[in-house]
Amino acid sequence: MQVCIVLGCLGLAGVDPSHSLQLVSLTALSIALASATQDIAIDAFRIDSIAEDHPEQQSAASAMATSGWWTGYAGLGAIPFFLADDIGWSNVYLLLAAIMVVISLLGFIAHEPLSNRNATFAAVQQKYQDAVKGHHPRALAMLLGVLLIIAAIMLNVFAAPLFAYQPQVTAVVVVAILAMIFHSLNRILANSNQAVDSITQAEQVVAWILSTLVEPLRDFFKRNGVAMALALLSFVLLFKLGEAFLGRMSIVFYKEIGFSNEDIGAYSKLLTWLVTVVASVIGAAITLRIGLIKGLVIGGVSMAASNLLFSLMAITGPDKTLLGITIVIDGFTAAWGTVVFMSFISALCNRAFTASQYALLASIGTLGRVSLGAYSGVMVDALDGDWAIFFVITALMIIPSMWLLYLIRHRLKPLLGMD
Question: 261, 257, 281: which is closest to 335 by C-alpha?
Fold first, then answer.
């Protein structure tokens, strides 16, 4: 995935967005897919590196992962803002590709954490091969369902400008198809002892797909119960929604009220980086003492409250002192919220399906940023450019997730290994 990112940066360096916007978009999408896959692999590595009998250490591991992520995002991410005006964006992407080459070399010296994942996956795949034998029509139907889900997601990515309510339609389609797949899957597993000896190639393909993509989801819903699983997924979606809306528009806001690229690079990137590294460690230490549920409440509320400083900045104008104060406080609360959020979803994962289940939870957590958060600009326009009101609304977006957390708090404790 890191090599793919390097190739993507090289591709962006040689393309003019004003003449090849579609090619630039596809290249950026390939970088995003490779980056997301890399992030999930790193998070699975982090979770599996912590012993199962010491789940409290996930907070410390999350702090290290957050610090590392922000070192790349903010520390190295400040480079384009400092250099773009002098050397141009093409040369900036060449520089980023070179940096990524050096970073990717570290992957060759890392060691896999001890895990029984291979044996577990082999057993699961054998179970599904036994289950789909003799169920050729239903197996093909489930394969078609998986392909329809992929098509719905790709439609959401590539054809969003054509459909005003694309994300909502996609969500309904995906949920409906998953429900049908799970229903057929349960019937197949219930009748697996009636399977015949021969298995077709199509059934082998379906068995592999079900083992890789569907079984982790089925395990998550079966282990938590449908109602609780949906509540957990809803909380994950809503927790950082306000932060997602703010994050999508922060750079636009900085420029609109009068800050320069150098100001943005120095304050929004470098200062946030330093604050995040320190805040991640402090937030992890506090979360270790007070527990995940209280950490989610304090981290979530403080993260939302810090958005009000942006409202103050919108009223006062481009004051660098206020910008520095806002960046420090917002960076601290965002880092704490991120650490406790990562620790929370890490604790919900079954070690047999760490990467898949963390990918599910993390992708739902970022759905607000990449899908719902895309409407943040529409919201600003609807408010006639009133940034102060916009940031107040982003602060209030924490309320639904906190209410949901309050409702499920008693059922969460056993899931998180709490008394």
Answer: 281
In DSSP notation, 373-407 reads GGGHHHHHHHTTT-HHHHHHHHHHTTHHHHHHHHH
- In the predicted structure, residue 293 carries a pLDDT above the cut 80: yes
CB 92 within 8 A of CB 84: yes
Question: Do 303 and 399 meet the contact criterion of CB atoms below 8 Å apart?
Answer: no
- Angle at the Cα of 363 from the Cα atoms of 223 and 210, rounded to 5 degrees: 55
**Tokens matching residue 269:** 């990137």
| Residue 239 · residue 365 · CB < 8 Å | yes
pLDDT of residue 269: 65
User: pTM for the full model?
Assistant: 0.72
CB 416 within 8 A of CB 328: no
- DSSP-derived letter for residue 267 is I
- As to burial, measured by CB atoms within 10 angstroms (0-12 exposed, 13-18 middle, 19+ buried), residue 220 is buried
Count of CB atoms within 10 A of residue 402's CB? 17
What sign results for the dihedral spanned by CA atoms 200, 204, 207, 209?
A: negative
| Cα(57)–Cα(285) distance, integer angstroms | 10
What is the predicted pLDDT for the residue at 73?
A: 76
Is the distance from CB of 370 to CB of 362 less than 8 angstroms? no
pLDDT of residue 122: 77
